[in-house]
Amino acid sequence: MSRSILHVDMDAFYASVEQHDSPQLAGKPVVVGHDGGRGVVAAASYEVRRFGVRSAMPMSAALRLCPAAICVPPRMGRYREVSRQVFAVFQEVTPLVQGLSLDEAYLDVTASVRLLGEPPAIAGQIKERIRARTGLTASVGVATNKLVAKIASDLDKPDGLTVVPEWRILQVLDPLPVRRLPGLGRKLGDKVEAAGLRTLRDLRCAPDAVLWPLFGRDTPRMRERAAGIDDRPVRTDLQEKSLSAEDTFPRDLADPRELDRQICRLAEKACERLRGKGLMAARVGVKIRCHDFSTFTRQRAIAPPTQEGRAVRDVARELLGRWLAEHRGAKLRLLGVVLTELAPASQLGLFDGGRRTSGIDRALDEVRARFGDHALRRGNSMD
To answer: What CA–CA distance (Å, rounded) separates 126 from 111?
Structure first.
């Protein structure tokens, strides 16, 4: 029996939230991100995409392409709030939900068909409920596997609903540009196109002599993906391998006191995300990038596992302090706090003395969720 898989992708999520919350931005070219010299575009509205602006583009380049673009700083607390509303809709339809990010997920609705109707009808219900509760639109791909559903959701944006039954997979995929294949990065995509493979049909039909220099042992799998073959199940128990918070600074920083404030702020942000996902961490790391782009990492185990901001902050400060003592006068362009060896917070009771969320952490989380990320901060993370 074939499965019925949906891929739901919110349309220009961060930008759409900003346009919904501020009606004066509706229909305007909006970019979400910080407009400093090294800021990047976190999200771009469809109005600004016409000028070639895309997510992850340097903000300076985006503003050159569209000088009239309106730059809005991100409000992660608000986006997480709306994301919870969206995922609540998913859970009403099926328990088999695999979240990929705040604004996208796979749903296996195979067992929901008898109760809710055919997969396209279920997809329509999801879109309607999301619009009614959030005022936002979503695009949905409907297929018999995850790969084709993901490709389909991107074919008719925004507010699209694309159904690709099994008998139409090759008909739909063959003419698509090869870069539509999920997971094909920019550099590899350049090499594939340079080899004369422009469409998914080209990739599917190419001989091993062409594909092996590009993909090596992955050649059979890439040929299958180009043909829309994918047997991966929707998995709800995927645990994140790591969680992080990092920032590229508008100017290189060398002052140890300023760097200490930054690492405290990032540790707090990482822990907020950790608590938001109901996880705890058993290892804390710092990521350090210098002005010449050389990058260093330092990490240390923390016992018992924790989601407490103070505990993570203390380890991160220690790791950064030791590195700075070895590299006096170093100028840093980026800092990050990386949490790994993650496990559900429900397991805290298994560890003697497990560090649970403090009252201060809970208060910070509640205020930020309601009023934004910068509404309340610890003193040691402020200028």
So the answer is: 16
pLDDT for the residue numbered 354: 45
Q: What is the dihedral of CA 20, 25, 29, 35, to 10 degrees?
A: -100
Report whether 86 contacts 79 (CB < 8 A): no
Is 237 exposed, middle or buried, given 0-12, 13-18 or 19+ CB atoms closer than 10 A?
exposed
**Buried residues in 102-113 as b, exposed as e (16+ CB within 10 A):** bbbbbbbbbebe
- Decide if 341 is catalytic: no
Classify domain 13-75 by CATH architecture.
Answer: 3-Layer(aba) Sandwich (3.40)
Out of 18, 104, 268, 272, pick the active-site residue. Answer: 104
The yes-or-no verdict on residue 297 having pLDDT over 60 is yes
0.85 cut: is pTM over it?
no
**Class level of CATH domain 242-381:** alpha beta
174-226: what fold? DNA polymerase; domain 1 (1.10.150)
- For residues 263 and 280, give the distance between their C-alpha atoms in angstroms, rounded to a whole number: 19
Q: Where in the chain is the domain with CATH 3.30.1490.100?
A: 242-381
